[in-house]
């Protein structure tokens, strides 16, 4: 089966990008969408993020054969319960949440009897809201799909095909494994960025203007990540608490080892560690998974919105 009517709940970076990507790459599909924020709904209509911006989730969901929740992880359950009365029984329920076990549970509990196939496009930016989305966001990015056991294989394959049409490379993964992997590759790096930027701005002997003036170094990269949406990231840490705490424990031990190497002057340890991490960065670039492409897709986006 192919999806004919896709409802998008939440028209920020992810929802807006899906809406634009569907219109670009799946022109036969009709999109409806809504957002809890009336200002966002108005802007979504101006930008044409979906074919029809609805006043409520219930209205957007009616007649959908795929509904994708694109709200912060902590808002998934509440948003899903709003479509209980109107969502057609055979519709596939999916989402784009950055954590998967807690979100899958919230969606399944809110929509009993519906097939929930969670997904996570590992594609994003530090920007949020209805102006942040662009059709190319998912191109050549991974989308991790975490189906429950005994999923309807036809519907699973339709969802995979949908994401591939948007340009993503799809990987099927166990939700628990997803949460552990993303805790170290995405959630912990964000926590570190939030910490270092906060620490630098708290230092009394370093003025705020100096932090800005000399931020051309590594600090600047951290400030981009630390500019990410506070609501979303609060929810990511709370919804993937156990995996994040596990990885944070490992990280703290490794940081303490480096701290000790600096204190005792263990130059070999420091050099060998940095040489190993440099090799990891180079292998990421060789595999074409370099995320350090700040203009990727945005030239089109900027041209479209200027
Ligand atoms: N920002 C990123 O780079 C990525 C985010 N994600 C996930 O995507 C989801 C959405 O994130 P973004 O699009 O970045 O956030 P966003 O802040 O740009 O958009 C979220 C939208 O949801 C709306 N919303 C909140 N509660 C709602 C409700 N009950 N009903 C309808 N609309 C509601 C908000 O008003 C907002 O416009 C999150 O679960 C996040 O974990 C996944 C991959 C990357
Ligand atoms: O902007 C960045 O560097 C990101 O890391 C974007 C991002 C944020 C959250 C996700 O779940 C996936 C990707």
TrEMBL record:
Residue ranges constituting the Prephenate/arogenate dehydrogenase domain according to the UniProt record: 4-292
Pfam hit, one: PDH_N
Keyword Transmembrane recorded: no
Keywords: Oxidoreductase
PROSITE patterns xref list: PDH_ADH
Protein name: Prephenate/arogenate dehydrogenase family protein
Organism: Novosphingobium rhizovicinum
Organismal lineage: Bacteria, Pseudomonadati, Pseudomonadota, Alphaproteobacteria, Sphingomonadales
């Amino acid at each position: 089966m192919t999806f004919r009517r896709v409802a998008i709940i939440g028209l920020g970076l992810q929802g807006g990008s899906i809406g634009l990507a569907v219109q670009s790459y799946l022109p036969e599909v009709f999109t409806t969408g809504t957002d809890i924020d009336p200002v966002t709904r108005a802007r979504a209509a101006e930008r044409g993020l979906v074919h029809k911006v609805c006043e409520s989730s219930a209205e957007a969901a009616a007649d959908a054969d795929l509904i994708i929740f694109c709200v912060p992880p902590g808002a998934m359950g509440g948003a899903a319960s709003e479509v209980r009365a109107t969502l057609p029984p055979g519709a596939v329920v999916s989402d784009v949440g950055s954590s998967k076990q807690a979100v899958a549970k919230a969606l399944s509990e809110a929509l009993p009897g519906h097939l929930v196939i969670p997904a996570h496009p590992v594609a994003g930016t530090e920007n949020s809201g209805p102006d942040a989305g662009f059709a190319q966001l998912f191109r050549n990015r991974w989308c991790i799909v975490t189906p429950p056991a005994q999923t309807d294989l036809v519907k699973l394959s339709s969802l995979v095909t949908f994401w591939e049409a948007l340009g993503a490379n799809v990987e099927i993964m166990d939700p628990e494994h997803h949460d552990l992997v993303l805790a170290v590759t995405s959630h912990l790096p964000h926590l570190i960025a939030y910490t270092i930027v906060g620490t630098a701005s708290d230092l009394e002997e370093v003025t705020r203007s100096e932090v800005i003036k000399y931020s051309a170094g590594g600090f600047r990269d951290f400030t981009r990540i630390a500019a990410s949406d506070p609501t979303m990231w609060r929810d990511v840490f709370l919804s993937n608490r156990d995996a994040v705490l596990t990885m944070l424990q490992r990280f703290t031990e490794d940081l303490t080892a480096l701290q000790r190497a600096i204190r005792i002057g263990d130059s070999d340890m420091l050099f060998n560690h940095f040489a190993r991490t440099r090799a990891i960065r180079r292998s990421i670039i060789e595999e074409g998974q370099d995320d350090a492409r700040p203009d990727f897709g945005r030239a089109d986006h900027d041209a479209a919105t200027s």
